[in-house]
Amino acid sequence: MSSEPVVNLAPSTAATRRSLLRVGVLGGTGTVLLGAGGVGTGIAQAASAAQATPAASAGAPALQGLFTQPDLDFDTLFAFGGTGYGSAEFGELVTAVNAINAAGASYQTYYDTFLPLATRLDRQAGAELAAGHRVSARALYLRAASYYDLCLYFIFGTTARASEAGAYAAMQRCWDLFCQLSDSPFEPVRIPYEGSYLPGYLLRSDERARRRPTVILNNGQDAQNVRMWAFGAAAALERGYNVLIFEGPGQGSMLFERQAFLRPDWEKVITPVVDYLRDRPEVDRDRIVLSGSSLGGELVVRAAAFEHRLAAVVADPGFLSLWVSWQALEKEITSVFEHGLSKQEINALWQQKFVPALSETQRFDLVKAAEPYARDALLAGRAGTVFDDLYGLGTTLMRFTVADVAARVSTPTLVTVYDDDELVTPAAGQGAQVYRLLHADKQIVTFTEAEGAQEHCAPMAPRIRNEVVYDWLDGVL
């Protein structure tokens, strides 16, 4: 890994595995349709601009041999990465991958393969628990939760799409049972929030009555509690930290069951979390850390600009702006916002020209990417359709930026960058910009392909990522 910031603001043209909107989601077809007839003068100008924008090129996957469909590859790599922490079993994954390919890799065959595996382990865990085999039951529930999570992510591409909330509930039930069976206290908590609560878990390495440094693991756009076990929680417990895993608006049950959506003013979420932790007798009030994963890398910097009671912040990765990534990845779609069109004109262009050109896979990509931000996207995904309000989505995404607030952060901050990061685009440029804007004590680290820690959030190398993050935190605290 490198600790020297490298600034390169040229947009990436690599193919994405699971993007905010996937690269080239319209392929070459969208640009042709945009010029096929106008629905107003302003829309015709936007269509002309879109035609002038070359389509992003599709590159080969960095890891060959899983699936030909890149987003299936990417999500499965996280499961492989979790094997070192027990959240998946290598042989189970290899067997599932082979079965999916034999059936013809698709969202449906992926779901149809991992769902029976998750269900079988879930039932086996119950039998082991009934027989008094607590350790085996705990391990099985963890893996079942992980495999249910794989099903959940791709459910909009299947015939089970309307059962999204139920798929989340199955995953969450297994995660909860894993926590209940822990030898150390893994406590379900409710954090007071705007007249209601945020659900979460406070994990402690033992039951000794002492105040410890505590890491808030702030998830991103579409990972679940079980993913955070390998990507931060287990490593923190090994080092004697407490861990708080929580679900904010747009995440987990807040999204799937309560239909609360991501908000850009994330300090309104984190300040209640900090308030809650400072009242806990197990927490050292002066050593509360906020670590954000994926989109969480943007959310935590935004929060730390206003919440100054934190001891350290980890932006993993450094993420300047959602809209910058969308502009790099989806030039045709975002270009319609550049010509002063009204909400009505943008939505008419979207509904009449873009949406009819989408394939089934492209519809999945778009709706899944938009789901945490808008109710119509969530409901469209469950119905097998595409949301109508592109204007509302775009103007919401534009608000997710730290460009105007990063300089206010007074907390020591670690910024990470990943080689071949196809979600934070351009990766080196966004991370370096966040780093440059910070006036607090800071460090920037790049995880590299040479060490197997490339791609967004190092799906294949959580231990490498965790070692760097927690060694830095040990030094700061």
CATH architecture of the largest domain: 3-Layer(aba) Sandwich
Percent in strands: 5-15%
Number of domains as seen in the coordinates: 3
- The tally of helices reads 19
> Strand sequence of the main sheet, in spatial order?
1-2-4-3-5-6-7-8
Helix amount, in percent? 40-55%
The secondary-structure element order is HHHHHHHEEEHEHHEHEHHHHHHEHEH
* Overall SS class: alpha/beta
The chain-level mean pLDDT equals: 88
The largest sheet, given as strand count, sense and whether it forms a barrel, is: 8 strands, mixed
Provide structural commentary.
By secondary structure, the protein is α/β, with parallel strands linked by helices. It folds into 3 domains: 29-57 and 324-397, no CATH class; 70-172; 182-321 and 400-476, Alpha/Beta hydrolase fold, catalytic domain (Rossmann fold, 3-Layer(aba) Sandwich). It contains 19 helices and 8 strands. The chain has helices at 29-34, 41-51, 70-81, 90-103, 107-130, 134-153, 164-180, 227-238, 252-256, 267-278, 296-304, 322-329, 331-334, 343-354, 360-370, 375-383, 390-397, 427-437, 462-476, and strands at residues 186-193, 196-203, 212-218, 242-246, 283-293, 312-316, 413-418, 442-447. It has an 8-stranded mixed beta sheet with strand order 1-2-4-3-5-6-7-8, sandwiched between helices. α18 (427-437) links the parallel β7 (413-418) and β8 (442-447).
